[in-house]
């Protein structure tokens, strides 16, 4: 690796598995120190041990403001500062109108939208102190276009796209850039799809699911000084899903 994140300290929510774990591994390989936040204690501790002294784990329920404050404090105490926040944690839940419950709706928005808001709130002062700093919000292709039957998920990801832009405007004068990444169908435990699945060209132009490792390089770029002129942007990694229906 090239050391593109040398000396940077990152907090990654949902960092124990899937895309979050891919990001954590790449960040450490690129020279960063990483605090992995997740509700899965066993998986998080195992990954931190794998990554060595450059990584640590903390239990993080992104719907709890006190968990976020503890995570930010731990990052600063353990590694000396906080340069990068990656709001990666999310859940996927759906169902048709008439059967999808208010409880499901509230839970999805609580994790996918309120969680990043609480993260930004808790990390703001530490990020400003470490300027230049960066926030990467992991939204979704569903934050660009609608998805039938995934009303709360779609609403939460559109909301995160909007939160990204408002935070980018507010924090830019303080030396903090905020951008969003919009993956399409990525082969992770959350998606629950089998490996090797093929898609038709109406679902995406590359007719396959993506891999976490195909999203991570963009997250690394947005966390690094290479993206110093990127702020408030939305970056799509979706195999052409949002390009329009092919054929």
TrEMBL record:
SUPFAM superfamilies linked: NAD(P)-binding Rossmann-fold domains
Keywords linked to the UniProt accession: Lipid metabolism, NAD, Oxidoreductase, Steroid metabolism
GO BP, sorted A to Z: steroid metabolic process
InterPro entries: NAD(P)-bd_dom_sf (IPR036291), Sc_DH/Rdtase_CS (IPR020904), SDR_fam (IPR002347)
GO molecular function: oxidoreductase activity
Pfam families with a match to the protein in the record: adh_short_C2
Homology family: Belongs to the short-chain dehydrogenases/reductases (SDR) family.
Name of the protein described by the UniProt record: SDR family oxidoreductase
